[in-house]
Amino acid sequence: MANQVAYGFMNLQGLFSEKLTDSNVATVSEAIQRSVEEHNRQMNALLGLFASRTTNHTIRYQQLGQNRLQPLDENGRALPVRPQGFYDVAFPIRDAGSAWGQTFKARAKMTVADANRLTAFMLAGDRVWVRDQILAALFETTAYNYIDPQYGTLSVQPLANGDAVAYDRNGGAPAVDTHQLFHNNDIVDLADPFPAIREELMEHPENSGEVLALMPSSRRAEIEALTGFHKVADPNIAQSIASDRLVGSLGVSVPGELIGYHDAGVWIAEWKSLPADYGIAVTTGGEPALAMREEPERSLQGFYQVPEDRNDHPFYERQWARHAGFGAWNRVGALVIEIDDSSYGIPSGYNAPIP
Questions:
Q1: How many CB atoms lie within 10 A of CB 205?
Q2: Does 85 have pLDDT greater than 90?
Q3: CA-CA distance, 212 to 49, in Å (whole number)?
């Protein structure tokens, strides 16, 4: 039996030992489609934390700028004003896919369990590809050119990186900013990065909701040792009424495991997929930091099976595909941080663009 059961196969486990050709083809085809649909639903929910979906190749991000009421006398009329400030961003789009193939003989021996395993394998490949594209877009420090076959050269932007763009700030004039941070210490009470993480995100009016820090496994023990950290309660253990207990909840899906809350006003999750010593922080409200560009045709959106199979005896092949790309949208909507270093550097393997 397969180690992982794909969503659409949940009710078919009693058929796992049966051959796919024994009148189960239509049932399995429906199970694969349901698995893909649920996969795309879950991916869209996760993407909402990091990215908006768009079919535009470039967008102008509109800022508010500063406004203050004008002094008037009894007969006065205010001068018309309008929001000011913007910056332009652009997005790549990449073609990616996977496939599985068999010989005629191997397909004849294929079971429902084999179909489930292959389906789960394809879906896992999409999760990894999308995750890596998101991480590369967040960790990148400089703009790069993407040659679009229809629109020409597009400049794909990183998070705020100290360039000439001035960003709105609560209670202050727009200013240049950098959201690639470093923390030149371990995570300890005397060098606690979470108050600064919250301040850096919430100083911008386009960010709202809760602050969520996604941290690597390499720093979990240090985080849990902080005086200001409160661990998520274990539902299997009765909590003492004589001690502080975390009773709130974040209310959004997170990658990894939500492990607790910091007194500074930061929810913290361990994300095992993060490279050691690198963290990412976002807010749960406002515009996401990234946009994911997709093709305008609905049939080319999401992760999908290519409708036509290769079937030239004795070979059989099924192709799967996704067409998407990521770039910064709200350039102050997230931050990245490197722990225990005197400067920020992109983690190995995450220089955008990645294949």
A1: 15
A2: no
A3: 10
Element (H, E) at 118: helix 112-139
As a whole number of angstroms, the distance between CA 268 and CA 241 comes to: 24
Concatenating the DSSP letter of every residue in 179-245 gives: -EEEE-S-SBTTB--HHHHHHHHHTSTTEEEEEEEEE-GGGHHHHHTSTTEEEPPPTTSPPPTTS--
**Amino acid symbol at 218:** S
pLDDT at 102 over 90: no
DSSP 320: E
> What token pair was written down for 116?
């489930």
Smallest CA-to-CA distance from 140 within 128, 127, 164, 157 is with 157
Give the integer Cα–Cα distance in Å for 155 and 142: 10
pLDDT tens for each residue of 255-278: 889 999 999 999 999 999 999 999
- DSSP symbol at 194: H
- Give the separation between CA 258 and CA 323, rounded to whole angstroms: 30
Sorted by sequence, the CB contacts under 8 Å of residue 183 that are 6+ apart come out as 191, 193, 337, 338, 339, 340, 341
Place of tokens 């005629």: 104
CA 270 and chain centroid, separation: 14
Range 50-62 average pLDDT: 95
Q: Which amino acid is at 201?
A: L
Provide CB contacts within 8 A for 15, sequence distance 6+: 24, 27, 112
Q: How many residues does the chain have?
A: 355
Dihedral in degrees, nearest 10, Cα atoms 142, 147, 148, 150? 140
Q: Which residues of 48-83 are buried (b: 16+ CB within 10 A; e: fewer)?
A: ebbbbebeebbbebebeeeeeeeeeeeeeeeeeeee
Amino acid at site 158: P
d(CA 137, CA 139): 6
Displacement of CA 151 from its chain's centroid (Å) = 26
The pLDDT tens digits of the residues spanning 325-341 come to 999 999 999 999 999 99
193 and 228 Cβ atoms separated by less than 8 Å: no
User: Concatenated DSSP letters for 31-82?
Assistant: HHHHHHHHHHHHHHHHHHHHEEEE--SEEEEEP-----PPP--TT--PPP--
